[in-house]
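pls read this protein.

:::
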Amino acid sequence: MNLRKFIRGFFYKKNLKDALYSLDMRVGGTIDELIDRLRFEANWTLYDFLGSMDNEKLIDVCRYYGIAVGGRKEDRMKRIYEFVTSDWKEHDWKMERIVQESSDGRVPYWAKSYEVFIAYKRDTGLDFARHLKSGLERERISAFLDIIDIPKEFSGEQTWIRTRNESIKRSKKFLLIATNGIETSRELKEEVQIARENHKTFLMYRYYTLDPKITLVLEGEHMNLGDFQQVSFDSKEDLLRKVLTVFR
């Protein structure tokens, strides 16, 4: 079961705001933004969400899914957790942490292949990237987006980097969303470097107000985006519409 779908099904926006308020974190935004703030900034796990529910809400969840209601709150939480994560075996996060911290260099067994890896600058391109991923997946086109597809249960910066790098290598296409300031993003330049080294098919989409001659300084190379075919877009809807034409 998808974690986001579960949370949206049983948490009202007020519940999420109350949780953020208790953590002295911002409470504004859409319900998805509130969920992501708890997951990715506060590092909440499924158990944290379940623990924030009162007994009546846990009982409602149990009854909705036909799970045994009796016992202590901890018993209900455990049963719900096992039910929700029953199809997460390939994402056994506890085992993943062991694999990541080992020195044998194995590729993580949970690593997935994607049709497209979405590269973007967090502070100017996130809305475009989120809308694009959602629209592609409605059309059954798998798309990797770091803020959604890297579980925060993975601990440590090296784990995050390895997850991202493997996802680039396992994606068929590399889609770059060019928005203001991408040339200053260290993470984005690292992603472009890996995609180049692995000979990925590049798809470049540029916000219409930007100069197409943007230069990315990579290791041993100055990459001028003006040398590549680009498609301009003026809104997140326009971006999705134009990207979908590549897959039809």
